[in-house]
């Protein structure tokens, strides 16, 4: 089972950052070729799509929550649960807005040049919809979660003398 590592930035604002996760890949040759092109020319886009893919299938991964706060694991799992709900609502807003834009993009496809005006919103709609549906199914108590308490490095006083 692969790991997905989250770092808790703020407990009060429920801010987490996905720091380690598997990159997007595909067994199909033509899809993997497109992923390799994205990796060469737009690695940030590939990283974003990889994150959306992970959120869609979060149930299948072991989740590592790193925190510098010394609090009980139930509170950290509750924070993770609230973060999942926030992310789900964000994806719902993305899906609705892209769903409203998508019917108008085929008209822009008539313009000469690459058909990015249709493909990019369609691709984002697909990944946001998958991540929304995946997040909707998640119950935190069913996830394989490991909480790791990291101790921030202490400042070492400079020796005088």
Summarize the entry for a quick read:
The protein has 5 helices and 4 strands; from the N terminus they run E-E-H-H-E-H-H-H-E.
If you had to describe this structure to a student in words, what would you say it looks like?
There is one protein chain. By secondary structure, the chain is α/β, with parallel strands linked by helices. It has one domain. The chain is 50% helix and 16% strand. The protein contains 5 helices and 4 strands. It has helices spanning 29-41, 43-56, 73-101, 105-108, 116-136; strands spanning 3-10, 15-20, 62-67, 144-149. The protein has a 4-stranded mixed β-sheet, covered by helices on one side.
**What is the H/E string?**
EEHHEHHHE
The largest β sheet comes out as:
4 strands, mixed
Mean pLDDT across all amino acids:
88
**Mass-distribution shape:** elongated
Rounded to an integer in angstroms, the radius of gyration calculated over CA atoms is 20 Å
Strand order of the largest sheet: 2-1-3-4
Keyword list:
4-stranded mixed sheet, alpha/beta, single chain, 50% helix, 161 residues
Mind sketching the topology for me?
Elements: E1 3-10, E2 15-20, H1 29-41, H2 43-56, E3 62-67, H3 73-101, H4 105-108, H5 116-136, E4 144-149
Helix pairs in contact: 1-2, 2-5, 3-5
């Amino acid at each position: 089972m692969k790991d997905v590592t989250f770092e808790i930035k703020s407990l009060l604002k429920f801010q987490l950052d996905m720091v380690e996760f598997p990159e997007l890949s595909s067994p199909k040759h033509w899809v993997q070729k497109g992923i390799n092109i994205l990796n060469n020319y737009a690695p940030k886009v590939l990283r974003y799509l990889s994150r959306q893919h992970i959120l869609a299938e979060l149930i299948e991964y072991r989740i590592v929550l790193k925190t510098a706060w010394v609090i009980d694991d139930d509170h950290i799992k509750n924070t993770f649960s609230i973060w999942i709900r926030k992310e789900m609502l964000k994806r719902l807003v993305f899906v609705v807005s892209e769903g409203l834009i998508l019917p108008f993009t085929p008209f822009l496809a008539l313009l000469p040049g690459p058909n990015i005006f249709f493909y990019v919103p369609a691709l984002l709609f697909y990944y946001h919809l998958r991540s929304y549906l995946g997040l909707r199914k998640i119950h935190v108590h069913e996830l394989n979660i490991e909480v790791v308490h990291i101790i921030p490095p202490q400042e070492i006083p400079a020796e005088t003398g």
